[in-house]
Every structure is written in structure tokens, then in C-alpha cells.
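User: Run a structure prediction on this.
Assistant: Running it now.
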Amino acid sequence: MKNGLSFIFLLCFSQLMGQGQTCPVNIDNSDGTLTHWFAYTGLFSKNTSRTHADQIRYDSSAPAPTGTLGATSITEYSLQNRGIEVITNNTLDPFGFFETIPFINGYAYSYSVKVGSSSLNTDQTRNTTNGGLFRGIGYTIHVPNGLVTDPYVVTYAYAMVLESAPHENDQVPMFTATLTTNSGTIDCANANYLLPTQPSGSTYILDQQAALQEGFSQSSTPSPNDNGNRNENPYRVWTKAWREVIFDLAKYRGQDVTLTFQSDNCVPSGHFAYAYVALKNVCQGLEIAGTTKACTNGTLTYAIPELTGASYTWTIPNGWQTVKDSANTITVIPDANPGTIVARAVNSCADLKANINVVILPPTVAGTVKGDSVVCYGLIPNQSFPLSLSGNRGSVLNWISSTDRGLNWTNIYDTSKNITVKNLSKSTLFRAVVQNGGSCRVDSSNAVIITLNNKPTAGTISPDNVQVCLGQTMANGLTLNGSRGTVFNWQKSTDQINWNNVSPSNTDTIQSISNINGKTYFRAIVANTGCPSDTSNKVTIGIYNVQFPKASIYPKDTIICFGTAAFINANIQTGTTYSWSNPSALYNGGSGIISGTPFIINAKAAPTKKTDYIIRISNAGCPNFLYDTIHVDVRASLTINAGRDTTVLINQPLQLSTIVSDERRIDYQWTPSTGLNSANAANPIAILDGNQDHIKYTVSIIDSIGCSASDNILVTINRNGPDIFVPTGFTPNADGKNDLLRPTAVGITNQFYFSVYNRWGQQVYFTNEVGKGWDGTWNGAAQPSGAYVFVTEGKDYLGNKITRKGTAVLIR
């Protein structure tokens, strides 16, 4: 974002009660010079709060270059570049990208004055004994005699560019507007514009939130100055676009009032400031900027210049809606009734009031455009296309066109309701843009399209010669290549003179061959709307007077479980021989000789992975073969694990769980169903009442094609209640027998642990997982034979705590 400090002061004197009042001569710099303005440039004392160290003054009564008469610019103090300059050509500020001569609140200013520059000081650094630059301009106004109740106003616009500086607010870059009399300053009209800072440790930082609220924006252009401070962000320039301010001098009638604008670099000199100011040559009092012609239900904004420290009151006609009231601006939506908008601004120096009468227009109706056309590009040179708009309410602002289906539009600067377009090189959309007065919404009509189609190219059919047998069908027999346009239809003929469209109609580039009983010719017709059609080459379909092989193959596709077989069947009605692509992978695939028809083949295949089996059938005298493919997909083996055998207490819920080899859809069946809450669930819960000591559950699964698997789990029912049993000894000699000191937990469901201690009370093993045990080592070293103390504890499914302590002997 960009920082620009620009101030425009507009001085106006109102004429009321028949008294003539004119603005001071060249108050708006209308002669393109600083004539009648005084000016000055200088340096601050470095370690002060804006104390002037030195200054050069340019008097309004002396000619340039020592005075301002006829002057268009003044250099910075002790520098050659311009520090004050009258702007007569409108450009964009390089930091804020706003215009350097404003159009604001409905008023077009003619000139502005740039006060300041991006220079720092005489050596362009912060490391100097000199302070920062300041520069200013001023105008002494003699307020004419008259009634103090008659407003005599000054209106100015300003925009500014300030470089953020890590200083207190009395030392940062600043722009000021000051109004003084012989008695002192007029505080209600004075304004100081700066980037606010706040303390941060031993320095100061920009208060960004406050800056944004005050209308500043961060510039996307970096500072041009290397001031020696490596800690500063190069993107430290902030800008404020044009604002407008007003004040009333009526209470100072007959007196001299001096208006001064000044741009200050920071006092230590390392950060710049400049502003633009423009003054209005209208002096009749407060004016409301906005349209006098509103549109029903349109959104309108009205504004007055800012009055320093003022309160604002807006009054709108009955029935109108206020969208947003922002002090000196208001946004409203009118209804169908006209009325008067009244604005009032009041501060300690002024009470200004203005009104504007508004009439109401009906809303815009865009209307309907006619003129759609479809033509052949280049067929008629320089072809013209008339377009007409009807049913609109409002004037045609312009027409727009698009050659990319409405993504981007180009203006056609024609305000007629009827236009003619020509010299088109591609298909184009057109709309009319309509508005019923400046305050109504701009609307656009429907879009019409002039479609330019290229001349079609029929292309070439391949192959150009095909021989078929009686009854043979070729689904993809003919292919049209290189065509441009739309296939209108395919045609066939037996004499190359009389051509008939194929039935059913075919607009594809592929044509099947079927029901050919003699030599036949094919061609394709390609068209584009608006253009004459084109015809492809013709191709010949010859005939062998022998029947094409005929057979039924089933199933076409099948899925089998791994380790099972697929059955492949063929019923051959016409043919003399056949062959398989991989006969060694088939059982009972036959010898290849068709001894008579119908000929039945019942083959069997047991592939280990997905496999295609292709049969080729021939009929003696017909050189073309009938091919068919059977796809056999092999599904991986299905496995299931029902879990480890376990022990459970009487009436203790036992959660059974299964692990299946993959996530295919399967059905479950548990047998027997004794004690189960569901015999068809993947993970049922069993509750056993102790009528038996053991029960073996078998779980079987089957998928959608019949692949199956099963597993079982043995459940032992303990009638003695929950307990933890620890062996009295173990032999960790890696023989696979009794190698672990492992407790057996019966009915323990949570908060389990098992600890082992040596004779010195050192813990040599700990676990909180049921089923694990001690291998007789500690810190990687085998422990000696002897007695070891254990402590184990857990809770049963009812929450009762079970604790067991004792000794176990390690035997080596």
C-alpha cells in the first residue's frame, strides 16, 4: 500500500442576503503559480520538539525566485530538488496511487500544491547534526465585512504520504493546517495529521490499528531512503487518499485570517513527509455533493466536507432508508417519493447547513436484444449483422462484446438502440448496457450470439476396403479421421449412385458394419450450421459368400475364490475349428475341431490371478475369425482369527472379537449360539452361566461370491470367582517350557499390574499387560537363582480389587 500526504484547501466565500462575496485572488492556484501565497523552508533543531534551527521565507509581495509572485516551485532548504510545487498536470502519486489533482464530492479541482518531498536533509541520512526538513505555504485572507450569521467558508482537500518513524508523536513526520488571527490560532479549524505511535520498550512503534482507523493505508512501494537504521521495514511508507475539509470565517468579518499548511519530516531527520493541498473556488457556504436525480430502490451516497471536531445531522425524506450514516457522509435507499436531504455540521466555531432537492426516476430496464445468427465464416466476405434493442427504460450507455463465452467483455462505444456489427473473425456475444439516469443501476440486456462456424471438412474413412462374411458384424468397422464439423449422418449405397442414410441415424465418427449381403459402399456427411456440408471418401465393403462363425460364450466375466475353478462354456452354432489363447490353463478345453453343430464346450479354469481366456472360431471358406474373451477375476483367500483361547468367570461378559484378512463385505455365523447376544455379529458378547466347564465357539464367514473361512476359540468357565495365580517357580533356560514367571489373571479386566523384587527390595520387573511375564533378567543381565518377591493386583469386571503377594523361585 502507499503513503501519500496530500492537502487541498478550498477557500470559498458565500454570498447571502444579496451581499457580494468573492474568493481571494488565486486562493485555488488557478493561475498555476504561488502568487499571493507566502512560503518558507527550513530545518529543525535535532533533539527538540519541532524547534526551528534555520528558515528561509519567500514573501508573497516579492517576485520569484526570492518571493512567490509567479513562482511555480520552491526548492527544499539547502537542496536542489523541489520542496513546494504547483501541480498542473494530473498524475498518480508513486506511493498512494491516488490522483495528484482531486475530483472529490462532485467537485473537480483544477490544481493542487505539493508541500514537501521524499528528501530527508542536506546529506539524505539520519546521521547528521542537522534536524529534519520542514516547509510550508500560507495565504492571508481579508474576510469581507458582512453579517456574522452569513457563512464565509474555506474548503480544502488534502492527501498525504508519511514515512513511519519510531519516535514520540511530537517528533514524527506530520502535516498541519493552521488558521490564525492577530489574537492567536483558531483551534476549531486547526488540524494535525500524523501516524500515531506507542511506546515499545526503549523505543516507539507505529500504532497500526489507530492508523487504519484514521484512514491510512500501507504503501506497496518501499521507502527510497537508506537512513542507516537496519532494523526498519523498507515498506514503512503510509498514505491517506483525498479528504475534504471546511471551516467558516463569518465570525472574523473585517479581520485578516492567515491559513498555513506545513509538511514536517521527523525532527531527527530520518523520515520524510509530503502532502497535496487543493482549494475550492466556491464560497457560498456549505454544499451537499450528490445526485439530484435518484432511482427507486437504488443506493445513493451524499457527502459534505469535514468540519473539524463537528457533530453531523442528516435529515432524509419520509419513506427513505438509511443504509449507513458516517458523520459527513450518508448512504440511503430512496422509495418512489421525491424529497429534500438536509445536512448540518456544528462545532465551536460554526453552524453550517445545506440541502439538496432530489427527484425520483423509475429503475433501469435493460430490454431485449435480437439478432442471433449462425453463419459460415468466410462464405460471405465482410458480412454485416444488425442488432436491435427493444423494451428498455433508460439510455444506451454502450454495447459490449465477448469472444470467450462471456469471461471478458470489450466496450463498443455506440449509444444507438440499433447497431450493425461486421468484420467478425470468431463467434461473438453482444449485450446492450443501459441506465435510466446517473443514479439508477446500470444493467445489461440479454446476450445474443453471432456464431461463426468454419467450413466443414469431411475427412477420410479407414479402412478403404473391407471384406466380410455373411452375417458378420463389425462394431467398430469404419472410422472417420481428420473431420472438422459435426457428422450429419453416414450413407450407404449398392451402386454408388443412389445413397441412403444409415438406420438408425449415426452422428458418430465410428460406423458399424452389419447385414451386408453384397458389395456395399459407405461415406460420411459432415456439416456445420450455416455452411454447406462436405462428403468424405467412399469405401467398399466386399462379401464372402460364406457364413461368419456364430457362437454363444458364457459367462463373459466371472469372479472365483482363490483355489477354486471357473466354468467356461461355449455353444458354437456356426464354425469348423476353434482355438484358445492359453489352452494349457484350461481343463476340458476341447481338441479344436468342431465335429458338428451345435457344438458344446464345458471347460474349467483355475487361475491363481486375474486371467483372460480368448477363444478364436473359424468357419471354412470365411477368412475372418470370431473372437470372444472371458475375464476371470480371482479374489484373494479369506481368513479369520477368532482370538486366543481364554478363561472367563460365571456371568462375566466376554467380548469376542475377530480379525478378518480384508475389508470385503462378509456375513458372520457363530455356533453354538449359547450365551451370545448375537450369532451374526462380528464381535458378539458372551455371558455363560456355568452349566458347563468349557465351550468351543466356531465363527464362519462367507462373502458375496461364496468365499469362506472359519476359526474357533475355546472358553473355560471358572466357577471360583476372579483371581490371579502366580507359579511358585520358573526355569528361564530358553527351552520353551516354563521360561517366564507369568501370572494367570482370571476375571481381571482393568488396572492390572505385576511387579517382581529381589531380596534387596529392588524392582527387577514390572508390567501392566495381562499375559506378559518376567524372563529372569534385569537391565539386560541374567539374575541368579533364588527366591523373588512378587506383588500383583487388578480389578474384576465389577470393580472389585484383587491383590496377591508371595515368592517364586528362579531355578537355573
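Residues 208-213 form the longest helix (6 residues).
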